[in-house]
Amino acid sequence: MCKPVNIRVAGFGGQGIMMFGQMLAYCATNDNMFSLWVPSYGPETRGGTANCSVIVSTKMINSPVFTNADVLVAFNQPSLEKFKEMIVPGGCILYNSSMIHDPILPEGVRGYGIPINDIALELGTIQVSNMTMLGAYLEFSELFSDATAEKVLEKYLGEKKAHLLGINKQAILRGREALRALKG
Amino acid sequence: MCKPVNIRVAGFGGQGIMMFGQMLAYCATNDNMFSLWVPSYGPETRGGTANCSVIVSTKMINSPVFTNADVLVAFNQPSLEKFKEMIVPGGCILYNSSMIHDPILPEGVRGYGIPINDIALELGTIQVSNMTMLGAYLEFSELFSDATAEKVLEKYLGEKKAHLLGINKQAILRGREALRALKG
Amino acid sequence: MEVKYKKTKGLTDSPLSYCPGCTHGIIHKLVAEVLEELGVLGESIVIASVGCSVFSYRFFNCDAVQSAHGRACAVATGIKRNLPDHVVFTYQGDGDLASIGIAETIHAANRGENITVIFVNNAIYGMTGGQMAPTSLIGQKTTTSPMGRMAEVHGSPLHISEIFSQIDRVAYLERVSVFNPRQVRNAKNAIRKAFTYQVEKRGFTMVEVLSSCPVNWGMTPVDSLKWIEEKMVPVFPLKVFKDKGVENNV
Amino acid sequence: MEVKYKKTKGLTDSPLSYCPGCTHGIIHKLVAEVLEELGVLGESIVIASVGCSVFSYRFFNCDAVQSAHGRACAVATGIKRNLPDHVVFTYQGDGDLASIGIAETIHAANRGENITVIFVNNAIYGMTGGQMAPTSLIGQKTTTSPMGRMAEVHGSPLHISEIFSQIDRVAYLERVSVFNPRQVRNAKNAIRKAFTYQVEKRGFTMVEVLSSCPVNWGMTPVDSLKWIEEKMVPVFPLKVFKDKGVENNV
Amino acid sequence: MPIKGYLTFESEKCKGCGLCVAFCPVKILYLDKNTLNQQGYPIVKITDPDKCIGCASCALMCPDSIITVEVKN
Amino acid sequence: MPIKGYLTFESEKCKGCGLCVAFCPVKILYLDKNTLNQQGYPIVKITDPDKCIGCASCALMCPDSIITVEVKN
Amino acid sequence: MGKILMKGNEAIARAAMLGGLEAFFGYPITPQNEVPEYLSRYLLEEGKVFVQAESEVAAINMVYGAAAAGFRTMTSSSSPGIALKQEGITYLCGSELPCVISSVMRGGPGLGSIQPSQSDYNQATRGGGNGDYHVIVFGPETIQETIDILKEAFDIADYYRNPVMVLVDGLIGQMMESVDLTKPVKKRFLPEKDYAANGTKNHPGERHIINSLYLESNELEHHNLSLKKKYDLATANETRVELINMNDPDYVIVAFGTMARVCRSAIEKLAEKNIRVGMIRPISLWPFPSSVFETMDAPHLKGILCVEMNLGMMLTDVLVANNGRHSVGFFGRAGGVVPDPDEVVDAILHFNERVVK
Amino acid sequence: MGKILMKGNEAIARAAMLGGLEAFFGYPITPQNEVPEYLSRYLLEEGKVFVQAESEVAAINMVYGAAAAGFRTMTSSSSPGIALKQEGITYLCGSELPCVISSVMRGGPGLGSIQPSQSDYNQATRGGGNGDYHVIVFGPETIQETIDILKEAFDIADYYRNPVMVLVDGLIGQMMESVDLTKPVKKRFLPEKDYAANGTKNHPGERHIINSLYLESNELEHHNLSLKKKYDLATANETRVELINMNDPDYVIVAFGTMARVCRSAIEKLAEKNIRVGMIRPISLWPFPSSVFETMDAPHLKGILCVEMNLGMMLTDVLVANNGRHSVGFFGRAGGVVPDPDEVVDAILHFNERVVK
Ligand SMILES: Cc1ncc(C[n+]2csc(CCOP(=O)(O)OP(=O)(O)O)c2C)c(N)n1
Ligand SMILES: Cc1ncc(C[n+]2csc(CCOP(=O)(O)OP(=O)(O)O)c2C)c(N)n1
Ligand code: SF4
Ligand code: SF4
Ligand code: SF4
Ligand code: SF4
Ligand code: SF4
Ligand code: SF4
Ligand SMILES: [Mg+2]
Ligand SMILES: [Mg+2]
Question: Under CATH, which architecture does the F4-72 domain have?
Answer without folding.
Answer: 2-Layer Sandwich (3.30)
